[in-house]
Amino acid sequence: MRTRATACAVATLTALTLSAAAGTALAAVYPPMARWAAPSAALLVAGALGIGALHLGRPLKAWRAFLGWRTSWFSREVLLFGLFLPLATLGAVDAARRPAGSGPGPATLAAAITGLLAVGCSAMLYVDTRRASWSAGQCLGRFLGTTLLLGTAAGVCVSRSPFASDPSSPWAGLAVLLLTLTKLGIEQRLLRHWVDDDSSRRTPLNKTARLLAGPLGLLSRLRVASGLAGALALALLPLVASAPDGVAPSWVAAIGATLCLAAEGLERHLFFVAAGVNGMPGKGAT
Predict the structure, then answer these.
(1) In this predicted structure, what is the pLDDT of residue 186?
(2) Exposed, middle or buried, 194 (CB in 10 Å: 0-12/13-18/19+)?
(3) How many other C-beta atoms are found inside a 10 Å radius of the C-beta of residue 88?
């Protein structure tokens, strides 16, 4: 039997990889990113679907997940991510054949839209459990925010690599910072429900807030610190690039994107453990 720690780790890795795949597909819409982003999205979603099969007691029967698409958010998620994989693959082939810098092809656009819809279904899967800390605002804000943030951060990072010919717009780094601040604001709203030990007011949201402020406090602070550090590094890239004898922008971009990825991994881990889950939900949708 899988331990709770293992189940949370698998759920965290799956959710983070799926969001990264969808975010990378969005980055592929930006012409200079298409050649690397489209194949990366296909590889990420293939890996995520393989990891996600570990949630299932009988992985060989995973195909049955498609059957409940009319009532189950899980089935809709699997269906959309299953569609996302061939679309991203077609987008990768199309991007490789198109002239450098040309606009995205139909497959790339379809993959980006399908990825966003699939991430929305992932969020609704948890909303449907009716857990107090998994409200629609929390889940949709976190999941879609991670998708946009990681896609933008990856785009900034790759555009600053030695192999890129067209650096990203300076606004991209600021977008990462804005997305980070927005996400942190959504997450910190849970702490409003914290009350002290002597209070008689105990609710599920209070329990989550107490966990985030107490036993999980160190991880929570690491999440905030790494997220802000990564976002600031990417936002300040134009200044770094303009310095005559400063640090190489490619290194700053790589460190910033890595910190953003680590922060989102911590956020998703806290999302699960602060709610006291033992695995991935799979209830029917309403």
Answers:
(1) 93
(2) middle
(3) 33
